[in-house]
């Protein structure tokens, strides 16, 4: 029987896979740790809050500006997205919020 890993481990694995697929580059463990440290120390630029638990930060990896989706309760990066993806999702969230206020 296969053993289930932790949520933190799954998030980290997901972030590595998404970085590779979206930016056509390999993410090293050191790069991942540096991104987390820049978020924790405030060197990264705050982008927005997605929920009570998840925030988004602008970090730079290999000279590329990237949005890191950060799980504040676990201290892990959930995924990496492009700035275009982040702006699109913010617009969609705002549209949903305004639609719900019309009801």
Describe, in short, the structure shown.
This protein has 103 residues and is an alpha+beta fold. It contains three helices and four strands.
What is the fold's blueprint, element by element?
Elements: H1 7-23, H2 29-41, E1 45-49, E2 54-61, E3 64-71, E4 76-81, H3 83-102
Antiparallel strand pairs: 1-2, 2-3, 3-4
Question: Please, could you describe this protein's structure?
Answer:
With 103 residues, the protein is an alpha+beta fold. The protein has one domain. The protein has helices at 7-23, 29-41, 83-102, and strands at 45-49, 54-61, 64-71, 76-81. A hairpin with a 2-residue loop joins strand 2 and strand 3 (64-71). The longest helix has 20 residues, at 83-102.
Properties at a glance:
single chain; 4 strands; four-stranded antiparallel beta sheet; 103 residues; alpha+beta
Shape: globular
**Total of DSSP H or I helical runs spanning 4+ residues:** 3
SSE series: HHEEEEH
- Strand content range: 25-35%
Span of the ends, CA to CA: 49 Å
Rg over CA atoms, rounded to whole Å, is 15 Å
Mean pLDDT level: 91
Share of helical residues: 40-55%
Instruction: Identify the strand order in the major beta sheet.
Output: 1-2-3-4
Biggest sheet character: 4 strands, antiparallel
Report the strand count. Answer: 4
